[in-house]
Amino acid sequence: MDIATIIGIVGGAAMIVMSVMTSGGSLGGILDIPSAAMTIGGSYFAIWIAAPMKKCLGLFKVMGKAFKVPDFGEKNIVVNMQALSEKARREGILALEDGLDDLEDPFMKMGLRLVVDGTDGNIIRAVMENEMNQCEARHMSWINIVNQWAGFAPGFGMMGTVVGLIGMLNNLEDKSSLGPNMAVALITTLYGSMMANWLITPFSQKLLDQNAQEMRSKEMVIEGVLAIQAGENPRIMAQKLLTYLDPVTRKAIEADVLKD
Questions:
Q1: Widest distance between CA atoms in the chain
Q2: Cβ-based neighbours of 22, under 8 Å, separated by 6 or more
Q3: What is the dihedral angle through the alpha carbons of 202, 203, 209, 211, rounded to the nearest 10 degrees?
Q4: Cα separation of 223 and 93, whole Å?
Q5: DSSP-based three-state secondary structure for 65
Q6: Half-sphere exposure of 136 toward its Cβ, with a 13 Å CA cutoff?
Q7: Taking the CA of residue 178 as centre, how many other CA atoms within 13 Å lie in the half-sphere pointing to its CB?
Q8: C-beta neighbour count of 89 within 10 angstroms
Q9: What pLDDT digit, counting tens, does each position of 150-198 carry?
Q10: Is residue 116 within 8 Å of residue 100, measured between CB atoms?
Q11: Distance CA 38, CA 156 (A)
């Protein structure tokens, strides 16, 4: 569970409530079901026009990834790649075939299978980079839909405000209702801004960060596979892969992988 996401949602809600209460308002004054239906429901169903049904239905599952801390195993990649490199230098490239089925990472398994098959290094890089790029493209297609929702929400908020103003202007003879009606009309603008800036856009940014982490781990795998294919010194390969890690993680395993 990503505690940062929880803190952001709860903390943002707390700041909104505090602002309302300290400005002389009440929570009941910013709660309006028709406004929520216009902003939340309207903007969501606009996505159904912009995207395939499959993605509209799967959108919430994808956004749910923002509540999880992903582990792409960068530390294990360094350790495993060094062990495989030492095995290849000691027993030969073909010796790697025995342990391929035990690898949990399908991307690493694919690359090493190409190495065992005697594939040229340039072809291995091309195949693995294409696989990585297609994976990122799939991620970005989902993230783009999240971004579209963030863009639609304020627009529907403004539409709701216009609808509310029209209703208010149709009842100008009732002077006592002008203030409350104006407040309700503006609530949809508030909802649209909250959706875009407090929730949906931050979710999109977290998904982007997770995508970047996964692509970095795949780059590490590509570098390791190509180093094994080229017969590179395992220690030199490990040093290359360590550069991808943050200082804390790097320090934790550096002594083990670079030991003489």
A1: 92
A2: none
A3: -150
A4: 16
A5: helix
A6: 17
A7: 6
A8: 15
A9: 999 999 999 888 888 887 777 777 766 666 667 777 888 999 999 999 9
A10: yes
A11: 7
